Every structure is written in C-alpha cells, then in structure tokens.
Amino acid sequence: MPFHKNGHRKQNTMSIQETRVILKNIGVINPLNIDEYIAAGGYKGLKKALTMKPAEVFEEVVASGLRGRGGAGFPSGLKQKFTSESRPGVKERYVVVNADEGEPGTFKDRVIMEQDPHIYLEGAIIAAYAIQASMVYVYIRGEYQESIRNTQKAIDDAYAKGIIGKGVMGADFDCNVEIKLGAGSYLCGEELTMLESLEGKRGNPRIKPPFPAETGVFKKPTLVNNVETLANLPGIITHGKDWYRSMGTEDSPGTKIFTVSGQVNKPGYYEVAMGITLQQLLDLCGGMRDGRTFKAALLGGAAGTFVDASMLNEQMTFDNLQKKGATLGSGAVMIFSEDDSIYDILHNCLRFFKHESCGKCVPCRVGTTMLVKKADDLRNGHPDKEKLLTDMVRDAEMMAGTSLCFLGQSPVLPLKSAAKYFSNELTG
Amino acid sequence: MSTQEIIQQFKPQQHNLLNILHAIQDHHPQNYLTEEALEETARYLKLTKSSVYGVAKYYTMFSLKPRGKYVLRVCVSPVCEIMKVNTIIAALEKKLEIKTGETTKDGLFTLEVSECLGQCDEAPSMMINDKVYNHLDEKRIDELIRKYAG
Ligand SMILES: Cc1cc2nc3c(=O)[nH]c(=O)nc-3n(C[C@H](O)[C@H](O)[C@H](O)COP(=O)(O)O)c2cc1C
Ligand code: SF4
Ligand code: FES
C-alpha cells in the first residue's frame, strides 16, 4: 500500500491523486527558460551534490532505493557505485543517457525532454559527478525532434550560465554534454547496442559481460541510465533519501510515470506514488472510454505482458508484478476493451519483433519470422489451434533461452501471457 | 549549404557519423543520402565507404534512394492499430495514388510506416518530415495533404 508524505498508509478505496515530483514543473514553467527552472528550485540538487564527496552522492542514491526506470528496475545507486569503482586505473568515465524510448506505448521520457529538459540534464550531471565522468552523451531517438531541440536549448543555456563545461557551477569538476541521434532502431535502446550506435556503427548487440560499468563507450567505464531515472536525482539529493522513501513502497520507492493509452477517457501521462493498482490508474484516467468494458492491459510495451481483469487490484510495483508473472517495464499501460482483438494486438507485437530483429543470431532471426507465420496460421483456420498456440509458446521459450540479446528473449512475454489469459479467444 | 560544408560542422570522429548522416539527409530536397555524400563522409571520417554504407543501410530513418519532398511516416504499432490506423493508410494510399513505400509522381510525397512514435495517447499518429500529427482521421488527412501540396 502506498505511503504518503505524512507517513500514513493510504486506503486502497480512496481515490488516488497524482504525486508530481519529476513532473512538478510541467505546465508551471517555460521549459525553454533556464531562469524559470532555477527559480523553481532547479540546480539546487547539483549545487548540493558538488559540496559532497562523490561517494556520498551515490551512497545517498543507494539509500534512497531508486530503481532504474528504463525497464529492468536495477538499483540505480549500486550501478553508480559499480561504475565509479570499476577499473580503478582508468581516468575516463562516461555517462550515457538512454533517451531512445522505442518501446511501444511509452512516451514518458518525451514528456520530460520536451517539457522540463533541465531536470534530467541536472540529474545527468549529478550522476556524472558521482562517478567522476567528464562527458555525458544523451542518445535521443531521431524521431523525437522536439525533445532534441529542447534538450539542445537546455544544454546551450546551461553552458552559458557556467552550469556545465569547465568548472561545473564553480566547482573543481568539468563536465561536457553532447546529443547523439538515433535513427529508427528499437534495438539501439538496449544499452550495449546503444553504445555501438553512439560510436557511429551499426546497431549490433555486444555480448554481455562485460557490462557497460566495466567496458562501455570507447571501451571505458560507462553509466547508462534512462531519462526518468536521472530526473529523480535532483529531488533525492535536494530533499534526501527519507523524503524519497516516504513515497511509494518498500521495494519500489518513489514515483513512477505511467503512460496510459488505448480505451480510456483521458489517456496521457500520470505520475503516481509507486504501489498504485491498475484499477486506481484506470480511475485516474477517467475510466474506460465511453463506458466500454475492460478486457485487457498490455503492461510494459511490446516486450511486456498482457493481464486481464483478475489483475486489476494488484499493486503495480516491480516485485509484485514479477511475482504475478507480469511486468512493469517502462511504465507503458495500453488498455483494451471488449471490442479490441487480442489476436490483432499480439500479432502486432510479434510483427514488431520480426521487424526489429537485427538478424545476427539464428534463433531470433528465424524465430521471430516463424512466430509471425504461425500467428498467421492461427487466424487462417489451422486444424489444431490449441496445439499451435502451445507450440508457439514453446518456440518463444526456446528462443528466449538461446538468443544473444534481450530482443530475442522478449516475444515470449506477450505471447505466453496472452495464451495464459486469452487462449479461448486466440484459438476460437 | 554544400554537403562538404554540412560535414565540416562536425569534428572528424566516427562517433559523429549518425549526426552527420541526419544533417545531410535533412538538407537534401529529396530526403536521402546520395552515393557521393556517403563517399565524402567516409573520406572525412577516414572510414571505408562500405562501413559508412553499412551504417546508412542499417537504420530505418536513412534512405539510400530518392524520396519525396515530404516523407510521411505513419505509426503502425498496437495503439495506433486499435485506433484504426489501417483506414488512415488506406485513405492516404488512395489519395496519393501510391502504395506504402512509394513516392508520388510529382515527387512531393513518400508514404512510409513506422513503429511507435511515442504519441500513443493521441493515436493514430504520423510524422511529416520533422512534424508530428495526431488524432488522424480522413478529414485531417485531406487537410494536411492539401496544405503540404501547397
Ligand atoms: C530491446 C531493448 C530495448 C530497450 N529500449 C530502452 C529504451 O528505449 N530506453 C531505456 O531507457 N531503456 C531501454 N532498454 C533498457 C536498457 O538496456 C537499460 O537497461 C537501461 O537504459 C538502463 O537504465 P536504467 O537503469 O536507468 O533503467 C531496452 C532494453 C532492450 C533489451
Ligand atoms: S537476439 Fe535478435 S536482435 Fe538480439 S542479437 Fe540476436 S538476432 Fe539480433
Ligand atoms: S502506438 Fe502509435 S504512437 Fe505509439
């Protein structure tokens, strides 16, 4: 159950409000005006961080319990610590901001970049200070033109004010920031593939390990973080870990931005304390569109999981959803009603993976193509549809075990969960 | 600006390759990367022509053949699909008298599809060059095509 600032447990039955921490400036300040950002308390977190030792900064983040918002939920403080301590002799370290946001249904990072770019820029510099990196690359997908423009404006203004560049805010710490553009490849959102792309190469995955913390961009220790993850840092450093932990749950502290789309009355972005249920999120969105009936949600994007109405009252935290075989992922929540075909949506996801597979390893190249073919057969009157669907799940599981990168491990997620909740519809 | 001038705005380092290719392509009236441009880029970055070509070919936003003055990229991911983007694509194909992937005879429009554009709360969506258009329906499509056709 979510905790509130005053420490009371909030009743599930009460109507939930948004808790805007990351999005607090949105609609309040002009995103293109650095003075307004500063007047709203901006760059205070960075200023404070610069008075701390780098290790004190990442220890605070460790204690806050912040987990990565890019999908995997890895503890962010620990990642900073590992990256800061790996290969002690190496001087150069990098921060790479993952602003590739290609997961279908996800648009939270775009909202931050367009409407309050300084907040994640500030977070990125705090992270750079924590690991003593003097270069930050922001890798933004090429389609996000407004994000690119607004981020560039924020960078230019921060340089002009001496907030970045030589001697960050007057401290003995230099840090430069540069934008790198993606060019329409979902796979390049995967961190190691992103580093290849950033270096000016094709987006072919690298083999893990080594992880970026050891061998990242230009073979140097690199911290890769999602935009929303970094946007949490100014608040954590300014107000401290206890403030942060007063929101959300024990295992998933803080807030989460959910991007809700599909059959609801008010689709959009919602920042809420972690621990909200799917039903509460639906209520925030004004309920189902024009009184339609809820049938399914796809949580976390194409590389996510379907759930049905039996999951409406489950808390949407990293651990609880995982326990129930579902995913939080990027925070994408696509809502479907009685009128929508689960088959069409699943087919769309499978087609997506086929399209985005880089083809480097056989299980994924052949597997993603075959899954689309079998999904076609499912529609075209196969004699034993139940067996066909079981075969598809088994194939996808095999792919998950043998593919080189996470893309090949993804189709099993929507497929298996769709088969779990909607096998009647899929085989009917 | 010549291709040469565009390229020279960047430092001659391989990690600038994608930014350079974007800049060149955006500047070309037919929205594509010419063979000469790839050669010039390779020379500038001291890379083989084949590796630059390989990169340009890998990424879906880059084109190696001429396209229209305006490139339409319509989202076909799940939310846009349930919001009936297929009828939008059909309407565009009919109106422009081309199929997806083709360019109109007058060289004005190329019709392409894209994965999720991150506009899902306002689906169905598409981009025309660097601009986003949401809540598409047939009326809106008519207006947009008329506007761009000038
Ligand atoms: C195929 C694939 C696509 C991904 N796309 C993104 C993305 O667009 N944005 C993102 O932040 N993380 C994405 N990730 C996750 C990253 O690999 C990585 O875990 C994340 O950037 C780490 O940042 P965090 O710890 O702040 O979450 C993707 C992963 C995979 C396997
Ligand atoms: S799993 Fe798929 S995307 Fe990943 S390396 Fe193999 S073929 Fe490429
Ligand atoms: S599904 Fe079309 S914009 Fe996201």
Describe this structure in words.
- The complex is a heterodimer of chains A (428) and B (150).
- Chain A is globular.
- Chain A is built from 17 helices and 9 strands.
- The model of chain A is unreliable at 1-13 (pLDDT under 50).
- A 5-stranded mixed sheet of chain A has the order 6-5-9-7-8.
- Chain A is α/β, with parallel strands linked by helices and 428 residues long.
- Chain A has helices at residues 34-39, 44-51, 54-64, 76-85, 108-115, 117-131, 145-160, 191-198, 227-231, 233-239, 241-245, 278-284, 318-323, 342-356, 362-379, 385-402, 412-427, and strands at 94-99, 135-140, 176-181, 222-226, 255-262, 268-273, 294-299, 305-307, 332-337.
- With 150 residues, chain B is α+β, with helices and mostly antiparallel strands.
- Helices cover 44% and strands 12% of the residues of chain B.
- Chain B has 7 helices and 4 strands, in the order H-H-H-H-E-H-H-E-E-E-H.
- In chain B, a hairpin with a 2-residue loop joins strand 3 and strand 4 (131-133).
- In chain B, helix 2 packs antiparallel against helix 3 (35-45).
- The longest helix of chain B is centred in the middle third of the chain and has 12 residues, at 85-96.
- The two termini of chain B are 25 Å apart.
- The mean pLDDT of chain B is 97.
- Classes of the chains: A alpha/beta (428), B alpha+beta (150).
- The A-B interface holds A 101-107, 110, 142-146, 179-186, 197-203, 218, 259-263, 267-269, 298, 302, 332, 334, 336, 340, 344-345, 348-349, 352, 355-356 and B 13-19, 21-22, 45, 51, 54-55, 58-62, 73, 76-79, 81-82, 114-123, 127, 130-132.
- FE2/S2 (inorganic) cluster (FES) is lined by residues 75, 77-80, 116-120, 123, 125 of chain B.
- Iron/sulfur cluster binds next to helix 15 of chain A.
